[in-house]
Amino acid sequence: MAFSKLRGAFAAVLIAASPIVAFAAEEPIEIFDAHMHYNWEPKPYYNVDEVLAVFKKNRVTGILSTSRPNTGTIALMDAKANAKAEGLQIVPFIRPYRIRADIQTWYNDPTIFDLIQEEYKRGYYRGIGEFHISGKLAEGEQVKKIVNFAVERDLYLHAHSDDAAVEILMSHNPKARIIWAHTGFGLGADRVAEMLTKYPQLWGELSYRSGITAGGGKLTPEWRALFTKFPDRFVLGSDTWVPERWASYGDTMSEYRAWLAQLPPDIAAKIANGNARRLFVSK
């Protein structure tokens, strides 16, 4: 018994004398949320400080900010101006909606173009959207006018659209730059590849995008191939369009990180944050 105690004491001395190597837990990959709504209709789910805390907690270091109406984005830009959003890059887009009903009429309502022009005067917007448009509805003169307005002012378009509408938007002006919300939802991977090949100024945003993972959260071969072939053409987003999406924000980011970890680190970093920074922040 005495020998056992002596051996234990000797071991303790050896451990104490040995160099101590501290292993810090690896931080989760940072994410640029390139599809975020901070809606104020009639009031936000979280106040500004709470929203900023959500981003910080989830290591979200950049956001593409839109809101309905644009009050929410303006509030975030004011917070940034007042040094309340340390470590967060905010890229504001003009939302062409005042209330939810505008989703159904914005593309042929002339007062929406007036709204876009007035908001643009704030001097800090980088794009227009997210807006909803499908098929031949994108052919209208007002839509064409908005596309040209964006091109003339070096703005991106953030389009919640099927592939037919994206084709029409591009036909309005070949210089248009489009962030494709949800990358066509359930559109086949082969068609997504075709669209990205045909339109070099089209980028896919991946919220609500089906087919990326299969059982157990494993990355599918089709999407692994897409990410490998087009590593510079995808961004991530939360799409916090309803309160439930804010409540599950951490789960959304965890799901992204789970399949990003299955990609080569350089490709994962581009999709997680690098592509968005290159597009929106590098200037």
Task: Give a written overview of the molecule.
The longest helix has 16 residues, at 2-17. It is built from eleven helices and eight strands. It has helices at 2-17, 48-57, 71-81, 110-120, 141-152, 163-172, 189-198, 221-229, 243-247, 249-260, 265-280; strands spanning 31-37, 60-66, 89-94, 127-133, 156-161, 178-180, 202-205, 234-235. It has one domain (29-280): Metal-dependent hydrolases (TIM Barrel, Alpha-Beta Barrel), CATH 3.20.20. Helix 6 links the parallel strand 5 (156-161) and strand 6 (178-180). It has an eight-stranded parallel beta sheet, sandwiched between helices.
SSE topology:
Elements: H1 2-17, E1 31-37, H2 48-57, E2 60-66, H3 71-81, E3 89-94, H4 110-120, E4 127-133, H5 141-152, E5 156-161, H6 163-172, E6 178-180, H7 189-198, E7 202-205, H8 221-229, E8 234-235, H9 243-247, H10 249-260, H11 265-280
Parallel strand pairs: 1-2, 2-3, 3-4, 4-5, 5-6, 6-7, 7-8
CATH fold node name: TIM Barrel
% residues in beta strands:
5-15%
| The CATH homologous superfamily | Metal-dependent hydrolases
Number of strands: 8
Number of domains: 1
CATH class: Alpha Beta
Give the overall average pLDDT.
92
Q: What's the arrangement of strands in the largest beta sheet?
A: 1-2-3-4-5-6-7-8
Oligomeric category: single chain
Report Rg.
23 Å
* Low-pLDDT segments: 1-24
Q: What is the straight-line distance between the termini? A: 72 Å
- Largest pleated sheet: 8 strands, parallel
Q: Given the helix and strand composition, which structural class is it?
A: alpha/beta
Number of helices: 11
Tell me what the CATH architecture is.
Alpha-Beta Barrel
What is the helix content? 40-55%
Helix and strand succession? HEHEHEHEHEHEHEHEHHH
